[in-house]
Amino acid sequence: MSNAPHFDIDVPAFWADPYPALAKMRKETPIAFVPQLGSTVFTRRDDIFTQEKRIDVFSSHQPNGLMNVLMGHNMMRKDGDAHMSERQAMFPAVSPRTVRDTWVRQFQAHADRILDELAPQGAADLCKALALPLSAECLKDVTGLTNMRFQDMDAWSQAMIDGIANYTGNKEVEARCHAATAGIDAAIDDMIPVVKKHPNTSILSVLLASGQNMDSIRANIKLAISGGQNEPRDAIAGATWALLTHPEQLALVREGKAKWIDVFEEYARWIAPIQMSPRRVAKPWTYGGIDFEPEDRVFFMFGSANRDEACFAEPDRFDITRDTQKSIAFGAGPHYCAGAFASRAMVADVALPSLFARLKGLRLDENEPVRIGGWAFRGLLNLPVKWDAG
Predict the structure, then answer these.
(1) pTM of the complete model
(2) Inter-axis angle of helices 230-245 and 150-164, nearest 10
(3) Which of 47, 149, 251, 389 could disulfide-link 122, Cβ–Cβ 3.0 to 4.6 Å?
(4) What is the topology classification, in CATH, of domain 11-386?
């Protein structure tokens, strides 16, 4: 157990809005042990930026961690050469060139089809009607699991996310996660002969071609699903809501004074879809006056880092003109998100420009409040809107 000062949180309140507690921690106890989470948390951006790279101390290798136990040993839970070899094997499926030459076209086709069906309706919950199916359909292509329904892709992703954040040990959450991983394994089994006969640029196809062992392939596809569905889904819905509640920011984009990628980068800073990354202390270490012992658990709080007053002026304000270079929404070290290029393309190149172009007069439905939740993963739970259907 580290000698970090203790900081108590109200877990339901932290789930509803973690930012007040994180701001207090940054100011008073920037490295603190939170008993309710059973972990020492880092809250300041520069501390996280430097220490996340110390893989000899803060290791991603967590043999008994929830992700390993529930999803298999994937590359996110490996360090050094073991991590890099699997990352390089996946790279051809998610490289900037593949995203540009293959995925953007397919992403746009999914967006056009979904918006064709949606546009005449005049009202919808955009989380369910657009963000969820678009992210899932795109991820089906990228993973190679085109035999899945988009509803299953989203549900299984959420079940795994809930499972790996299940630090209170809820048995029902664990059971849903097991059911999800079994469903994904069955989908992989069905698609293996298809992509072997007709190779493509999907993750399943390139990993099979690389000769990676089957257990690792399964674990890495589950990893891609657990992060590749919720982050673009939540960024699409969240960035849309941010623009609708900040019309002066939307005007900047429409007037050509800012770009859609600026919207994406600022939203990912403001409300990072992935708020936290866990680590295991691998050896005795002292940093910031805190002694860390082997097997201590550490949480790097990306969501807090991205609102660090030392790096961002008025960090609680959504401002697409700000410099977001210090944002670590995708991580900072060797585990920088492999799907970042695909995520940016899906949201900034396809989803946002397409939906604002097609849904004329898009506005919030004032009859239903927007709900937001989560501290490990955070996003909108609903987005009720109206537009001019005619």
Answers:
(1) 0.93
(2) 90
(3) 389
(4) Cytochrome p450 (1.10.630)
